[in-house]
Specification:
- It contains one helix and 40 strands.
- The chain is mainly beta and 532 residues long.
């Protein structure tokens, strides 16, 4: 959507309820968040009937087949006089983003800004850089499957609750609420991780009884660095004693959990507090600096090796290399090096397939060191398909940073810094590097070796906000002095038997706030730890 205001009289959808495969694989993107505005007319007839909630966008009900839906860079305005309007009913599966969006009710009326409770099986997905103004609920989410990750959200002017969570597993970082109602309400089977949050009470009455967070009906809550200025108490936990209730001054809560931590050895009863770095980005280039891989000989969907053509596009001296929609092939013995002036690889969700030999384990792409190379390379909107145990994106550059976002592919790192954002992957190996991941979905399973796991941390630092997994096999193995911190995670445990522990910690450090929902049984062992 180029910048401008678009009048919208009904929900924008790309499928029909009851269909399995539609409602997937679509990106709606504006030219800019504040310049692209989609608006409902005032006093819209369809938004006047209770129970007939109408959303600007609606991306489909269960089952969890809503792969790679994205809404980005726009303002959703539901106008005035629309009490049952909804900004978006958003659903994505495995990976998908609701990012750089502002949702506004001009008079504060409306049911919800972002509604992710209209169906079940929503997620895993990433909501990032979201502002919601008005509505009964700023964000509404329900059900337990399949987890949702939030970062940089601001909710203001809600009438009932800013963030209402009834059963979902949510991981939240950098959350600002300015309201006269609770900033969060958790219930049912919810597990919520809230890190670096500021909840401000701005009501004219009720400050002496107001709770910033209401946590009830057995929900699990972990908070860290939470400020609640103006509220009488920070947390009303299960209707019992209030947490953070100070008569004269509200001090931030450094760290608190509703259920006591578990450790096999004597250890501090805290998370690791690994240093957190923001996902870097690089500026968008002028199109004159874009190299199209097709212009250098790559042909999509012909099942012929395109590795040399892709390498030629990378070596052309441009700063952005672009993959039009389609499937491109990298031969079994080929590896493409990310080098030269390139600082962004981007596709319209193009698929890159790595062919394999039975003895071949060469990666599809590898980033190495070199003099004068761009310090940061962003790889986005590319789906990498390869066989088991073959790295798709491999990092070997100690002085560079690799960012992988909004795509798929196995990631191995041996040096430098790696940022992962909204990625579906198979097992990953991290050695002697630093990793920050937001919304990381790993579904592979390993039963052939006790050392294999979905994430193998070998003397690395790995920080994850929102880790979702399926099937069996160890989820995280931390070894040889590594450090792993999982802030919010969800195992949809399927396939038996659960031979290996969920988490393994060998002469290393690890903390996790994690939930399990058994699809077929449970892990027999949650934690196995060895020291000396």
């Amino acid at each position: 959507f180029p910048n401008g205001t678009y009048l919208v009289s009904d929900s924008i959808t790309w499928g029909t309820d009851g269909q399995t495969r539609p409602f997937m694989g679509v990106t709606m993107q504006g030219q800019s968040r504040d310049g692209t505005i989609l608006k409902f007319p005032d006093n819209m007839a369809k938004a006047q009937v209770n129970g007939n909630r109408i959303a600007m966008f609606r991306t489909g009900v269960a089952p969890a087949q809503r792969f790679r839906n994205n809404i980005r860079n726009m303002t959703i305005n539901t106008g005035r006089g629309n009490p049952y309007a909804v900004g978006a009913q958003f659903n994505a599966s495995n990976y998908g983003t609701f990012q750089d969006v502002k949702i506004i009710s001009e008079d504060g009326a409306g049911f919800a800004g972002l509604d992710m409770g209209f169906t079940n099986e929503i997620g895993p997905l990433l909501v990032k850089n979201l502002v919601v103004q008005g509505y009964d609920y700023g964000i509404l989410t329900t059900n337990t499957i399949n987890s949702q990750t939030f970062e940089n959200i601001t909710l203001t002017g809600q009438k009932k609750t800013a963030f209402h969570c009834l059963g979902q597993v949510v991981s939240i970082r950098n959350f600002t609420s300015v309201n006269s109602v609770p900033a969060m309400h958790l219930s049912g089977g919810s597990l919520a991780v809230v890190v670096d949050a500021s909840f401000t009470f701005n009501g004219t009455t009720g400050a002496d009884t107001a709770n910033a967070i209401v946590n009830q009906n057995g929900a699990v809550l972990y908070v860290r660095n939470l400020a609640t200025p103006g509220y009488a108490s920070a947390i009303n936990n299960q209707g019992g004693p209030k947490v953070g209730k100070i008569p004269t001054k509200q001090e931030p809560i450094a760290e608190w959990i509703s259920h006591g931590p578990i450790s096999l050895f004597e250890s501090p009863a805290t998370s690791l507090h690994l240093p957190v770095e923001e996902t870097p980005d690089v500026p968008w280039d002028d199109m004159s600096q874009w190299a199209n891989v097709i212009s250098y000989g790559a042909i999509a969907d012909d099942d012929i090796d395109d590795a040399d053509a892709i390498q030629a596009a990378i070596d052309a001296g441009k700063s952005t290399v672009y993959f039009p929609w389609g499937t491109y092939k990298i031969g079994a013995e080929k590896t493409v090096e990310i080098r030269g002036n390139v600082r962004r690889l981007i596709g319209c969700q193009a698929n890159i397939r790595k062919d394999l030999l039975s003895t071949n384990i060469t990666p599809a792409f590898v980033m190495k060191d070199g003099a004068g190379l761009p310090p940061v390379v962003v790889i986005e909107r590319l789906d990498g398909a390869a066989g088991a145990r073959v790295a798709f994106w491999e990092m070997r550059a100690s002085n560079r940073t690799m960012v992988i976002k909004n795509g798929t592919g196995k990631i191995d790192g041996y040096a430098g810094k790696i940022f992962v954002e909204d990625v579906a992957s198979s097992d990953c190996y991290f050695k002697d590097c630093k990793v920050w991941a937001r919304q990381f979905n790993i579904e592979n399973s390993w039963m052939d070796s006790p050392t294999r796991s979905k994430i193998y941390n070998d003397n690395a630092e790995v920080w994850v906000l929102g880790l979702k997994t399926e099937r069996h096999g160890s989820i995280v193995r931390t070894a040889n002095g590594g450090k792993s911190e999982i802030l919010g995670g969800f195992s949809y445990t399927t396939e038996d038997p659960k031979t290996f522990p969920m988490f393994v910690n060998e002469l290393s450090s690890m903390s996790a706030v994690f939930a399990e929902v058994p699809g077929q049984g449970r892990y027999d062992t949650l934690i196995a730890e060895s020291r000396h």
